[in-house]
Amino acid sequence: MPLPRFHRLADDRQGHILDVARGHFARHGPGAASYNKIIESAGVSKTAAYQYFDGKDDLLATVLDGVRDRLLAALGPWEPAASGPAFRARLEGGSRALLAHLHKHPDDLALADLAIGRSGEAQWLGWVEAVVDNGQALGLIRTDIDRSLLVAATAAVLRAADAWTLARLRSGDGQHAEQGADQAWLLLAALWSDGSDGNDGRETRDAH
Q: How many Cβ atoms sit within 10 Å of the Cβ of residue 31?
């Protein structure tokens, strides 16, 4: 986390430093990006830089937190759906909103995988919990599995789908990237069905 002195900077100055850092991390990768070059490009002396951050890793964590926050803002809070079709439409709408944001913000695209994959991200798990609770209330998601395990498994599927989609976006394969929502839905439908209806999740998948 940034040191207190960083938070005392004007908002536009904070934003400038983080924008410059994000650009360097996106272009060169977190490992290869030079802390000295970042602070030089941002117009920050070495003395001041170490009063703002504990070092490169601290700066990277702050940048990734910003990427995560922008992705969550694009996704929006989960609004409970009242029906199966509305539930699926909400999931697909969130996926489209994320894709649109990433198309417009290539630096966020380059760092999204790291930002999403950071361990212990309560914000992401909170969103997934809301999805699972809503789906269970609608009878679309099984209730015979421990809730925390089901939330973790759902988050893992979404994480894998995100990684699949992001890889295709980075390669310029936007057409197949847009299939990510359908791919994720098929996996989630199989995870969420208890098979008691004899269709192995097809009823959930066809709720549209």
A: 8
Amino acid at 103: H
What does each of the 208 residues of the chain score in pLDDT, given as a tens digit? 899 999 999 999 999 999 999 999 999 999 999 999 999 999 999 999 999 999 999 999 999 999 999 998 998 999 999 999 999 999 888 888 888 898 889 999 899 888 877 755 677 888 999 999 999 999 999 999 999 999 999 988 887 887 787 777 777 766 666 676 678 888 999 999 987 654 444 444 444 4
pTM (whole model) above 0.85: no
Question: Does residue 84 contact residue 140 with C-beta atoms inside 8 Å?
Answer: yes
Query: Residues 122-159, buried b or exposed e (16+ Cβ, 10 A)?
Result: eebeebbbebbebbeebebbbeeeeeeebbebbbebbb
- Which of 50, 52, 56 has its CA nearest to residue 21? 56
Could you give phi then psi for residue 92, rounded to 5 degrees?
-65, -35
Separation of alpha carbons 97 and 76, rounded Å: 9
